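Exam revision sheet. Question 4 asks you to relate a sequence to its structure. Input first:
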Amino acid sequence: MPLISWDDKFSVGYGLIDEQHRKLFELTNSLHDAIMVRAAASALGRSLKELLDYTVYHFSAEEDLMQRNGYPQYAEHKALHDALTGQAIDFKTQMEEGKAVSSLAFMQFLRDWLTRHIMEVDTALGGFLKNRAGS
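Answer key, structure tokens:
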């Protein structure tokens, strides 16, 4: 069973962002699946790396859109991206160092952060970008 399922309520109304969010859901679910089947550390590491790499790519794409369109909340939005990236890298580092980490707690945190961020912060960005395109 997936940790998080795409639903239209997560659509921000901006195609590129919605497409990338769907991919983030897919990669999050892949990592969750690896955790649930107790995949080997190497497989878990690959899955986490793929999610982190795509997250960085997605955040960069969003930040580029914000800058090119003069989004007034750019600094606050980027700070949220940076905070999540830092937490995810910290989790990955702890895991690679063999420290005891709660994978399921991290996945719950990631799910909650992602859904809340999309529905609150990215929805505002999507509305702004749609209005810019329509003007």
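Marking note for examiners. The mean pLDDT is 90.
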